[in-house]
Automatic annotation (TrEMBL):
It comes from Fulvimarina pelagi HTCC2506. The keyword Transport applies. SMART domains: AAA (SM00382). It comes from the Bacteria. Residues 8-249 form the ABC transporter domain. This is ABC transporter related protein.
């Protein structure tokens, strides 16, 4: 496989904070069209990896490629325009707007940098139709007139996912999408992720191992900033180092 087959690739990526190495020489390949999970104990460097890939942080050394193109020197907004969008742990929701309005804002944000303003898709009725389609994708179609602030926690996270979808990401980075959710919501979000992952690439940090086993094509295990193991769930869960380091055996 060549670099162009990978939606995301990092080469020898390292990030140090005042001499502390949070990400240590990580070479990660995320194949296009797959769901790839990044797992590891707290402090392993998972969120730092996301911050580096989306350029919210500057790498100390190493290279980041998106669809085979070097994006190491690009800015977060440029990377988002190339279709790599991060959801969760970033609040993209306006509490005092309704769900429909929130999605409309996200749709308009996507169109902002082009001449879409003059095109039919910027008309209010068209925007509303598109927004409703997205709310339906995450199962929030019955709440379009509810204010975001009135949503219970689990549904607020679904709204965040919906605002991400409105940006039409080709590559979605989901940082702990199920964090803090009850069992029923976890299953719902897993189903939604599986559905919206079709035709896209998903890189996901998730602690719930049964969800990871269920959803992921490939898993990379990080420990102390470095790759400990990589492969299918069966492969990494058989790995002795993973069992002792991560699963406490
Ligand atoms: P994870 O998401 O896997 O739990 P993080 O990527 O958040 O881990 O953090 C990895 C390590 O880097 C931790 O030890 C954390 O304390 C440290 N770290 C993360 N961000 C910073 C920062 N901005 N400044 C200093 N240390 C940081
Ligand atoms: Mg984290």
């Amino acid at each position: 496989m060549s670099s162009a087959d990978y939606a995301i690739e990092t080469r020898n990526l390292t990030k140090t904070f005042k001499g502390f190495t949070a990400v240590d020489d990580v070479s990660l390949k995320v194949e296009r069209g797959t769901i790839h999970a990044l797992i590891g104990p707290n402090g392993a460097g998972k969120s730092t990896m996301f911050n580096l890939i989306t350029k919210f942080l500057e790498p100390t050394t190493g290279t980041i490629l998106l669809n085979g193109k070097d994006i190491t020197s690009q800015k977060p907004a440029q990377i988002a325009r190339k279709g790599a969008v991060r959801s969760f742990q970033i609040s993209s929701v306006f509490p005092h707007l309704t769900l429909l309005e929130n999605i409309r804002v996200a749709l308009q944000r996507r169109m902002h940098n082009s001449y879409h303003f003059w095109k039919p898709e910027s008309r209010l009725d068209v925007l509303n139709d598109d927004a409703r389609t997205i709310l339906t994708q995450v199962g929030l179609e019955d709440s379009e007139s509810v204010l975001a602030t009135e949503l219970p926690y689990g549904r607020k996270r679904l709204l965040e996912l919906a605002t991400t979808l409105a940006l039409e990401p080709k590559v979605m980075l989901l940082d702990e999408p199920m964090a803090g959710m009850g069992t029923g919501d976890v299953q719902r979000v897993a189903d939604i992720i599986r559905r919206v992952a079709k035709g896209r690439t998903v890189l996901m940090v998730e602690h719930n191992l049964s969800v990871v086993a269920d959803l992921s094509d490939t898993i990379t295990v990080l420990q102390l900033g470095a790759v400990l193991a990589e492969g299918s769930y069966d492969e990494v869960s058989q790995n002795r180092e993973v069992r002792s380091a991560y699963m406490g055996e």
